[in-house]
Amino acid sequence: MLKDSKAFSGFSVDDTAKARAFYADVLGLNVSVVPEMEGLLNLNITGSTPILIYTKPNHVPATFTILNFPVDDVEKAVDELSTRGVKFEIYDQENFKTNEKGVFLSGGPKIAWFKDPAGNFLSIIEK
């Protein structure tokens, strides 16, 4: 029944205007308004089904990574996004540390986490 379905994901924010500005202007993604549906946005990412962003009055930020963006060079992407105002998470736990830029280098691909204006976690991860 569902195996041929074109599933899509979605997540909530507290302010779609701020979300639209962040995802379009800061991250450079193609963001569109869902026609005739106030407060709904689609992230249109190449090779992916649209990702729905919706306003939720009692929004609570996700405590896990909701979107992972594969990139060729995490360090370069961190540098570029930092110039656009993105703040990367710095972790300094015994078994979980990032470098001073926020890049995790131990065990697995390089990855760096950051938050959208609603506090949801996103990442860039080296392919």
Automatic annotation (TrEMBL):
VOC domain sequence ranges: 5-127
Highest taxon, organism lineage: Bacteria
SUPFAM superfamilies: Glyoxalase/Bleomycin resistance protein/Dihydroxybiphenyl dioxygenase
Protein name, as recorded: Glyoxalase/Bleomycin resistance protein/Dioxygenase superfamily protein
InterPro entries assigned: Glyas_Bleomycin-R_OHBP_Dase, Glyas_Fos-R_dOase_dom, VOC_core
GO molecular function, one term: dioxygenase activity
PROSITE patterns associated with the record: VOC
Oxidoreductase as UniProt keyword: yes
The keyword Oxidoreductase is annotated on this UniProt entry: yes
Alphabetized UniProt keyword annotations: Dioxygenase, Oxidoreductase
A Pfam family of this chain: Glyoxalase
